[in-house]
Amino acid sequence: MTGFDFQGRRYLVTGVMNQESLAWHVAAALQEAGAEVVLSSFGRAARITRKAAALLPAPPDVLELDVTDDACFTGVAEELGRRWGALDGVLHSIAQAPPDAVGGAFLDTPAVSALRGFEVSAYSLQRLAASLTPLLTANGRGGSVVGITVDSARALPGYDWMGVFKASLDAVARYLALHLGPLGVRVNLVAAGPMETLSARGISTFDALADHYERWAPLGWDRTDPGQVVGAVLFLLSDLARCTTGQVVHADGGLHAVMGGIGTPPHRLSPG
User: Fold this and answer.
1) N or C end of the chain: which has fewer CB within 10 A?
2) In this structure, which CATH number among 3.40.50.720, 3.40.120.10, 3.30.70.1450, 2.20.28.120 belongs to the domain 10-251?
């Protein structure tokens, strides 16, 4: 049980690559709470997404969405409009950094890679929210846009330009909150601790970073437990967050609030 009631609600979930994806677990939790869900994917990845969709409690449709093509945003909005007429929320879980933009290559990254990563990882939030705003306002109670980010207040070794893209995503979300708030649309982000996903494997320092979180996070951390992040996403998608916008909610065991690595790790009580 999720603890949330989403009966009759309808959501678009982007970024499902496989069953490890945070977005997959969000989609599963939404369905278990009574919501209808549609996924999006693109190109060759769509075949993998459809296989992952088949493993959800109620296998949803997968719509084609290339976030570098404005026509795709229009097409997704039109299809959801025909299907549902209104939308209660959307999860933005899309990010991409070319190989020469991460892993210590920060000083040598060419402009074309930096700009491509910004378009996919940050600008796409603006395009997604803007294209779906008519549907998010059509239900008469407003809607919610939630994105997945990391703790971008600090430089993370190995993340390099992906860290810059995530910091940009934070800023895009704040400005969307400013411009969409008067229409009743909320825009928030969840800053997740390091989770073992397909995209995480592209970061050379991931294991060291996850080790650090698991050692020092005051509440503890488990890189294999997506439920630590899913609850925060569901809260922001739900009516419980109806007066919350422009926020970055940290779901990281509390490490963002402390400086780990000094002294001895916090002693945590054993469960039960």
Assistant:
1) C
2) 3.40.50.720
